[in-house]
Design a protein that fits this description.
By secondary structure, the chain is of the alpha/beta class. It has 13 helices and twelve strands. It has two domains: 204 residues, Bacterial extracellular solute-binding protein, family 7 (D-Maltodextrin-Binding Protein, domain 2); 117 residues, Bacterial extracellular solute-binding protein, family 7 (D-Maltodextrin-Binding Protein, domain 2, 3-Layer(aba) Sandwich). Strands 1, 2, 3, 4, 5 and 11 form a six-stranded mixed β-sheet that branches. A six-stranded mixed β-sheet has the order 8-7-9-6-10-12, sandwiched between helices. Helix 2 runs antiparallel to helix 10 and helix 12 crosses helix 13.
């Protein structure tokens, strides 16, 4: 009922106009003191006040809203809807496209656009440094390509954060190489890339994340692929005892996306402030996630969870498996998008020795 009431509320505002503009006296007008009221939605929980450990995604949204209000002197006010109160990631992205809300924050899914699956190609990035180079850099070819896809959905990509990478958590045993998951019933999220990767090596079971705790508790599933910080955030360590850093996928879960019409209604100075605040919040999210991940393993160990770091040979078995299904992933994503993303990342790696030699020569 609460969700229905909120949806009706948002729909009413959409009819009245997406980006609401008010003068200093509250009436529509062109006075210098006019304000712009925006609505922003996410699946992430409101971090509240106080300790934000393991809450980097929600905390970044909170920071963005606060910073925009402060740095625009209240001229741009953003109402945040957290915790899927307006619907799923797909629901709220489509609401943003239609102008029913102004800003989407989260992971744009391939159900919306198959090209979005290219962000989630298994083992696309080697580490957070590569993610920072390509994803969090608005001048990168990766970011520009992503922004061009967003523009076709009537949206402006303001920023992307580091988000997180996904390991393996389960109740039964240590996970090492690819073969070691063959006996596991694993929760997956609904996505063609995810299905293509997991369906042949385990018993993959798409399931809402809200059902996972009870499903592990009752042995309906054995575990799931998930970031360590999110394991703690959802208290899965209470029912599972094994975590392995397979880090099979980067999830583009910290994308700040604004409806193009909503963005264009802002004066240029406010556009710049909103953009800058989104990028600062994205950087903040990445810094928090890396810091949280560093301490998450100690927290899991203290709860009795075994933390296993793959050997180079074991990690290579996962990479080799990923390479063996590359054409399957390419089909799921679309050849053009897949090739474009792979070429961008590979071109940067190819240039690494040249860049290193140039640095040494300069020294």
């Amino acid at each position: 009922m609460k969700k229905l009431v909120v949806l009706v509320f948002v729909a009413l505002f959409a009819v009245l106009g997406c980006t609401k503009k008010e003068g200093a006296d509250g009436a529509a007008g062109t006075a210098a003191g006019e304000t712009y009221k925006l609505r922003m939605s996410s699946i992430y929980a409101d971090p509240g006040v106080g300790d934000i450990t393991y809450k980097s995604l929600g905390a970044a949204m909170q920071k963005f809203i606060k910073d925009v209000d402060e740095k625009t002197g209240g001229r741009v006010q953003i109402q945040g809807f957290y915790a899927s109160v307006l619907g799923s990631a797909n629901d709220t992205f489509q609401q943003m496209e239609r102008g029913e809300i102004d800003i989407y924050y989260g992971q744009p899914m391939s159900a919306i656009d198959t090209r979005f699956g290219a962000w989630s190609i298994p083992y696309l990035f080697r580490d957070y440094d590569e993610i920072r180079t390509h994803v969090a850099n608005p001048d990168s070819e990766f970011f520009k390509l992503s922004a061009s896809w967003m523009s076709e959905h009537g949206a402006v990509l303001l920023a992307m954060g580091l988000s997180n990478t996904r390991g393996m958590f389960n109740t039964k045993h240590r996970v090492t190489d690819v073969q070691s998951v063959s006996d596991l019933k694993l929760r997956t999220y609904e996505d063609p890339v995810v299905s293509a990767f997991w369906e042949d090596i385990c018993q993959a079971m798409p399931m809402p994340v809200s059902e996972v705790y009870t499903a592990m508790q009752t042995n309906s599933i054995d575990g799931l692929e998930f970031p360590p910080t999110s394991v703690i955030g959802r208290k899965y360590q209470e029912v599972g005892k094994f975590y392995s850093d397979i880090n099979w996928q980067w999830a583009n879960g910290a994308a700040f996306v604004i409806n193009t019409d909503s963005f264009n209604k802002l004066p240029d100075d406010l556009k710049q402030i909103v953009t800058d605040c989104a990028r600062e919040a994205a950087v903040f999210q990445g810094e928090r996630e890396i810091a949280d991940e560093a301490v998450s393993f100690d927290t899991l160990k203290a709860a009795g969870v075994e933390i296993y770091n793959l050997t180079p040979e074991e990690r290579q078995s996962w990479v080799d498996y990923s390479n063996s299904i590359a054409e399957k992933i390419r089909t799921a994503v679309g050849a053009e998008a897949y090739d474009a993303v792979i070429n961008i990342v590979q071109a940067d790696r190819t240039a690494e020795p040249v860049a290193a030699e140039a640095t040494e020569a300069a020294e």
